[in-house]
Amino acid sequence: MKPTFYITTPIYYVNDVPHIGHAYTTIACDALARYHRMKGQQVFFLTGTDEHGEKVQKSALQQGLAPRELADRVVTRFQGLTPALEITNDDFIRTTEPRHYASVQDLFRKSLGNGDIYLGEYEGWYCTPCESYWTDLQLVEGKCPECRRDVEKRKEPSFFFRLSKYRKPLLEYYERNPRFIRPESRRNEVIAFVEGGLNDLSVSRTSLSWGIPVPGHPGHVIYVWYDALTNYITGLGYPGGGETFDAFWPADLHMVGKDILRFHAVFWPAFLMSAGIAPPLGVFAHGWWTVEGQKMSKSLGNVVDPYEMVATYGADAFRYFLLREVPFGLDGDFSKKALVHRINSDLANDFGNLLNRALGMLGKYFGGAVPAPSPPGEEDLSLIALAGEVRRSVDAAMEEVEFHRALAAIWDLVKAANRYVDASAPWALARDASKRERLGTVLYNILEAARICVLLSSPFVPAAAQAMWEALGCQGEVAKAILSDAATWGGLRTGAELPRSAVAFPRIEA
Ligand code: ME8
Predict the structure, then answer these.
(1) Separation CA 431–CA 465 (nearest Å)
(2) For the whole model, what pTM was predicted?
(3) How many angstroms separate the CA atoms of 143 and 134, rounded?
(4) For a Cys staple, 112 with which of 25, 117, 120, 293, CB 3.0–4.6 Å?
């Protein structure tokens, strides 16, 4: 196992406040960061905001603010997601920070120095909302192919990055690193795109002032994607990074929405190759959420506010829903009905009840003190074996970034433990004094299965997991547990005094 794990979210534009899409990417990264910490790796988890460019400048103008003022206001809404969603990022980068200016200018200078960045003139059809130039061929009925709005012809002096030169090195990189772009279907899309040939990329603007100046060319500011992508090395202290940079670069995973995969899988590795820096090891593109069957938009008024979700349903439930409902990588649909259903059925009924039934019976039959188990019988052994299998399935699923599969595996154990309760009928054993030892073993096993479920589910539902962890008499923070020790059967402390109930997942009344 690699000793370190570096994971990043995209940096989010501050032209608008966060919505479910931003929360989704950040929560997915957080679950992975937490899981890798539990594997014993040293994790660096970076998120932040993208504060330069036309979008932010325009939005600020509309609100009568300077771009920096707008950024200062909106950034707090993104930073606030950390406590609200129980996010464990190690740093938060803003592209307006001096450390980022130094980093972008250094990277730029390297490619300017070796001729990979050169001065030319850019002309094209420009779509302001998308901040993209398009060629004649790319336009759809004369409009922007992405947002279908009007475009305008523009021409200006611009520095270009010699992306065309990197067609072959990129294809070789994809070939040598089959897990660089995931999921697989997206990888094929990117390869087909690069095989089709790459045009040099305009990386500066003279028409824009809200950005990082090109070193030595004060009329130019560095264009958005070159600025934004570089955040991933700034966060590790580039260009001076030293130990942190050496320990964590190349990044293990850049998590992105499918909309921005190309920038991460094509431009970014090429910028790095040109500067003599190793490309990242992985980029994962996830799908998009619609809301109640419709595209999310301000005009439809259906934008899902993560703060509102947390206030109504709690962060754990929201996190669980987003990562369980839809196979990670595919598009999905958000509805409150589906969310409430998941909360009541998976969290309250299956998981919450398992723990509460066990604690209730432990209180009733053993005064709340965890009994020592006697050697397991056959029905016990199959539960114990399943716990081991689930542990391996969760690990395999997390390696593949398949949260839905990891959660489904954990719930296989939750459900098996509930069936084990029914099949072993502790209430019947309790009526027969000669079965007292068996009763103790059964209760121990139920609680131990619950403990392992709590441990494995903690990257997804961290606050509830901590509450359940404590209710099970386990010490310290579940988030600090190391799976290789803690997930082994038999970790539950005998003799511990447990409460008679614990409310980890309240039911939501419709
Ligand atoms: O693109 N469903 O920032 P951004 C799921 N600053 N995820 C969604 C989503 C949806 N409906 N809508 C947005 C930018 N996202 C650039 C990135 S990185 C160097 C620069 C998520 O504020 C998804 O992760 O538009 C997408 O990639 C990100 O928000 C875009 O955020």
Answers:
(1) 33
(2) 0.95
(3) 10
(4) 117
Strands 213-214 and 204-205, sheet pairing? unpaired
What's phi and psi for 247, nearest 5 deg?
-75, -35
The protein residue with its alpha carbon nearest to ligand 1, atom 19, reads: 229
* pLDDT tens across the length of the chain (510 residues): 999 999 999 999 999 999 999 999 999 999 999 999 999 999 999 999 999 998 899 899 999 999 999 999 999 999 999 999 999 999 999 999 999 999 999 999 999 999 999 999 988 898 887 767 788 888 999 999 988 999 999 888 999 999 999 999 999 999 999 999 999 999 999 999 999 999 999 999 997 889 999 999 989 999 989 999 999 999 999 998 789 999 999 999 999 999 999 999 999 999 999 999 999 999 999 999 999 999 999 889 999 999 999 999 999 999 999 999 999 999 999 999 999 999 999 999 999 999 999 999 999 999 999 999 999 999 999 999 999 999 999 999 999 999 999 999 999 999 999 999 999 999 999 999 999 999 999 999 999 999 999 999 999 999 999 999 999 999 999 999 999 999 999 999 999 999 999 988 999 987
Question: How many angstroms separate the CA atoms of 337 and 297, rounded?
Answer: 20
Which residue of 25, 225, 284, 303 sits with most ligand 1 atoms within 8 Å of its CB, as the best mutation to test the pocket? 25
Q: How far is the CA of 157 from the centre of ligand 1 (A)?
A: 29
Query: 12: CA distance to ligand 1 center in Å?
Result: 6
The residues that bridge with 214 in the sheet, in sequence order, are: 217
Q: Is residue 24 within 6 Å of ligand 1 at its C-beta?
A: yes
Kindly give the distance from the C-alpha atom of residue 212 to the centroid of ligand 1, in angstroms, as a whole number. 22
Q: Are strands 4-13 and 42-50 parallel, antiparallel or unpaired?
A: parallel
Residue 9 CA, ligand 1 centroid: distance in Å = 9
